[in-house]
């Protein structure tokens, strides 16, 4: 399986490649520094599974480049990568057909989860879009993005939500226990309850539901009750 990473900054590519390679055991990353190079390299790849395109690299012309890429590879999901966290940029990218929008400030562990989500056929909406929506609605006091109607995450306790955030970050039980000042056996008990409420069988499925709800991890607090 090949993932195409196109960004005109070599340092950005160097920083992302190790995380992209962890998405799966058979992942090979193809690098490009412009849209034209991405198109050329994509043509030579028979099993291109995902493309990540920088919004402002040469040839993109903002989202006109996304249209060009999708016309050439209609079955390949595309994630837009950008240093911008402007809601207008993210909204425009998703409305133009991108499978998701990744800010360059996103943690590497979270990016792994996002890529797995998109490879499973889902879309990823960054949490700051939910926050922007809440501000527009006059509910900026909400600390977390609104959940979709009927979301099973609403059934979780505050502590289970803390643990879910840690799972999205890829933390194992020992790390979660240290971060939340819990015993590891307590973490395991919370996980069993969480999986039951979410209707999932494992951590990967739980993280997938969290990402679909706009939860990006790194929001845990050790001051909540067990």
Care to give the gist of this entry?
GO terms for molecular function: DNA binding. With 226 residues, the protein is α/β, with parallel strands linked by helices. Helix content is 46%, strand content 12%.
List the helices and strands and how they pair.
Layout lengths: L1 E5 L3 H11 L7 E5 L2 H9 L4 E7 L9 H9 L5 E5 L4 H9 L4 E4 L4 H12 L7 H10 L21 H11 L4 H8 L3 H15 L4 H10 L14
Parallel strand pairs: 1-2, 1-3, 3-4, 4-5
Helix pairs in contact: 5-10, 7-9, 7-10, 8-9
Question: How would you characterize this protein structure?
Answer:
The structure is a single chain. By secondary structure, this protein is of the alpha/beta class. It folds into 2 domains: 2-132, Response regulator (Rossmann fold, 3-Layer(aba) Sandwich), CATH 3.40.50; 147-212, Winged helix-like DNA-binding domain superfamily/Winged helix DNA-binding domain (Arc Repressor Mutant, subunit A, Orthogonal Bundle), CATH 1.10.10.10. The chain is 46% helix and 12% strand. Strands 2-1-3-4-5 form a 5-stranded parallel beta sheet, with helices on both faces. The longest helix has 15 residues, at 184-198. It is elongated, with a radius of gyration of 18 Å. The modification 4-aspartylphosphate is found at residue 54. This is DNA-binding response regulator. InterPro entries: CheY-like_superfamily, EvgA-like, NreC/VraR/RcsB-like_REC, Sig_transdc_resp-reg_C-effctor, Sig_transdc_resp-reg_receiver, Tscrpt_reg_LuxR_C. Residues 149-214 form the HTH luxR-type domain.
The CATH topology of the largest domain: Rossmann fold
Strand content: 5-15%
Structural class: alpha/beta
Give the integer mean of the pLDDT values.
Answer: 84
Major β-sheet profile: 5 strands, parallel
The CATH class of the largest domain, by name, is Alpha Beta
What coarse outline follows from CA principal-axis ratios?
A: elongated
Report how far apart the termini are: 42 Å
So, the CATH homologous superfamily of the largest domain?
Response regulator
């Amino acid at each position: 399986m090949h993932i195409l990473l196109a960004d005109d900054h070599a340092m950005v590519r160097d920083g992302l490649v190790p995380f992209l390679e962890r998405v799966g055991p058979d992942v090979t990353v193809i690098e490009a520094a412009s849209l034209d190079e991405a198109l050329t390299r994509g043509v030579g790849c028979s099993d291109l599974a995902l493309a990540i395109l920088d919004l402002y690299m040469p040839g993109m012309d903002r989202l006109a480049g996304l249209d060009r890429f999708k016309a050439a590879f209609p079955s390949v999901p595309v994630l837009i990568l950008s240093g911008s966290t402007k809601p207008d940029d993210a909204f425009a990218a998703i409305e133009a057909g991108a499978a998701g929008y990744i800010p360059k400030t996103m943690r590497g562990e979270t990016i792994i989860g996002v890529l797995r989500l998109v490879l499973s056929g889902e879309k990823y909406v960054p949490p700051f879009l939910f926050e922007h929506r809440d501000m527009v609605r006059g509910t900026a006091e909400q600390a977390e993005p609104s959940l979709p109607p009927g979301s099973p995450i609403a059934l979780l306790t505050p502590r289970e939500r803390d643990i879910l955030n840690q799972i999205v970050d890829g933390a194992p039980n020992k790390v979660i226990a240290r971060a939340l000042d819990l015993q590891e056996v307590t973490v395991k008990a919370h996980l069993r309850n969480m999986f039951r409420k979410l209707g999932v069988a494992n951590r990967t499925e739980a993280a997938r539901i969290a990402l679909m709800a706009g939860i990006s991890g790194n929001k845990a607090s050790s001051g909540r009750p067990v």
